[in-house]
Amino acid sequence: MRGCAVITGAAGGLGIPISRRMAEAGFHVLLVDRSPAVAQVADDIRSAGLLAEHSVADLSTDEGVAAVADAVRATGIPLMALVNNAGITRDARMQNMTTEQFEQVIEVNLLVAMRLTLGLRELFAEGSSVVSMSSRAALGNFGQSNYVTSKSALIGFTRALAQQWAPRVRANAVAPGLIDSPMTQAMPAEVLSGLVDKVPAGRIGTADDVADAVVFLVSDAASYITGQVLTVCGGRSIAP
Asked: pTM for this structure?
């Protein structure tokens, strides 16, 4: 066993495949989400003979962060990885976006990651790793000024963390591009096809593509990588 790994936003979206891949990589995973559905995700992982716990917690509160810290301590094993995956969108054109929409996205996508990372600081073992889920959208996306701000700020937080917590803890970010998801599946076929045409790799990404990047960054194979952003976008971020 490689130690305890905490994954936030574990009840859906990218959280499920990341949690599964982390467990398959030998971690005892602690899955965290506001939704009680996270319990079923943990059950499914355990049914495969892997190690998983869950915690239903609101990480926008001190109580929620404390509950996760207590759950880590209860495992009795070193904390070796934290994956800050929790995130939301509240899209709107800039001129139509409300302050509430902007603040909601900053709260969940940025401040939750900051609170939990700092709340677990005394529990991180030597050689542990923090991976935060940014996005290719950090480069700019129409109608997502709040999301773009949160994801670019998360990269800044990651780089600051990598400098200040080295060498005990490494910190990196993963920035997914166009990924097959309920959101992309809901797009009109012609719109989605047009987006895929702009991807040099010639296909839409999968959730497992992203999960594999996370597992790499927390592994010993990435032991000399910190303060970096791994963009999982099939080359879209460098395409014309």
From this structure: 0.92
Q: Is 224 a catalytic residue?
A: no
Residues 6+ apart with CB under 8 A from 191: none
Residue type, 69: A
Q: What is the pLDDT along the chain (240 residues), one digit of tens a residue?
A: 799 999 999 998 899 999 999 999 999 999 999 999 999 999 999 999 999 999 999 999 999 999 999 999 999 999 999 999 987 666 656 666 577 776 788 887 899 999 999 999 999 999 999 999 997 764 655 546 777 888 889 999 999 999 999 999 999 999 998 899 876 787 788 888 988 999 999 999 999 999 999 999 999 999 999 999 999 999 988 877
Domain boundaries in the chain? 4-177+207-238
For residue 73, the one-letter residue type is R
- Set 27, 102, 147, 157: catalytic member: 147
E strand segments, 67-113: 79-84
Tokens at 49, concatenated? 């003979």
Please measure the distance between the N-terminal and C-terminal CA atoms of the chain and give it in whole angstroms: 44
Backbone phi, then psi, for 156, in 5-degree steps?
Answer: -60, -45
Cβ contacts of 58 within 8 Å, gap of 6 or more: 34, 64
Homologous superfamily of 4-177+207-238? NAD(P)-binding Rossmann-like Domain (3.40.50.720)
For the record, the structure tokens of 21 come out as 């891949």
